[in-house]
Amino acid sequence: MTRFGTWLRAEPDGIYCPPGDFWIDPGQPRPRALITHGHADHARSGHGTVIATAETLAIMAARYGPQPGGKAVAYGQPIRVGEVRVCFYPAGHVLGSAQILLEYAGERIVVSGDFKRTPDPTCPPCVPVPCDVFITEATFALPVFHHPPAEKEIAKLLDARASAPERCVLVGAYALGKAQRLIALLRAAGYERPVYLHGALTQLTRLYEALGVRLGDVQPMAGLPKAALKGEIILCPPSALADRWSRRLPDPITAMASGWMRLRQRARQKNVELPLILSDHADWGELTATIGELAPAEVWVTHGREEALVHWCQQKGIPARALLLHGREDEED
Ligand SMILES: [Zn+2]
Ligand SMILES: [Zn+2]
What we know:
Layout: E1 9-11, E2 14-17, E3 22-24, E4 32-34, E5 49-52, H1 54-64, E6 70-72, E7 79-81, E8 84-90, E9 98-104, E10 107-111, E11 133-138, H2 150-163, E12 169-172, H3 178-188, E13 195-197, H4 202-210, E14 218-220, E15 233-236, E16 253-257, H5 264-269, E17 274-276, H6 284-294, E18 298-304, H7 306-315, E19 320-322
Parallel strand pairs: 3-4, 4-5, 5-6, 10-11, 11-18, 12-15, 12-16, 13-14, 13-15, 16-17, 18-19
Antiparallel strand pairs: 1-2, 2-3, 7-8, 8-9, 9-10
Residues 37, 39, 93, 114, 331 line the site of one zinc ion.
């Protein structure tokens, strides 16, 4: 039996809050939407008023065009939406990503959106927010998902590059968050050569730079002769890995940066020679440690492998249930 959060409704395409008359990350256009972050399964176009961080609004504008109904909120600055007190906190997932704290009727509910606890040079770290109900994502909520240290994966990438000077390394990385984090991690590892981009990654990478994330020398690869790309690192969207497009590259070592690369089968399916396990989502250890740290009265689970996390919570004596929201499985990571 649920005791908390009777004032929040989990609908198939999002969470609706009647006393605030708003939706969180709705899958369809709604008059008033609170958006946790810019990934396409959370931030759709066509809402009336959009309440989000300035960075998320900028990402949405880059993807969908101007957002006339956008209202920017700063982290840690509470606002009132209808009868509900709302406050955004960093989620550590991608630039601008937020967990949303809702306060109403003496209860505190946190919607995590997507989050990770591992440090990320491209966004502020996740802030755990004490609450009665923690609504958590569960993208990698199975014990098999243990993300290795990012530095280790970056070292694998640099080793592969160094060992094949006649080839290039082509890394599939999602356009929002992963590509920029990968570049920032390369810089942190001391790599100073230009990083080359497929055209589909340019716009959001430039936006990150405009928003103050320093990425060093990043260049479009378009127009460069094959020979000039020997020994270089090139990033592309995962869909371009198997494309005819890559034939213009010098014998690429095909890599992919994703939490899903933990599964060898996925790497094989995608013909990935160099799987890099680099995720922007909490792994099993981070999910369970976060719930342990917050010790909420209830946990609601969404976004992936709900069952295992619900079971874990129940074993720890924390009432938990799965919210079945549509279209949130297997997020691009
Ligand atoms: Zn996301
Ligand atoms: Zn997501």
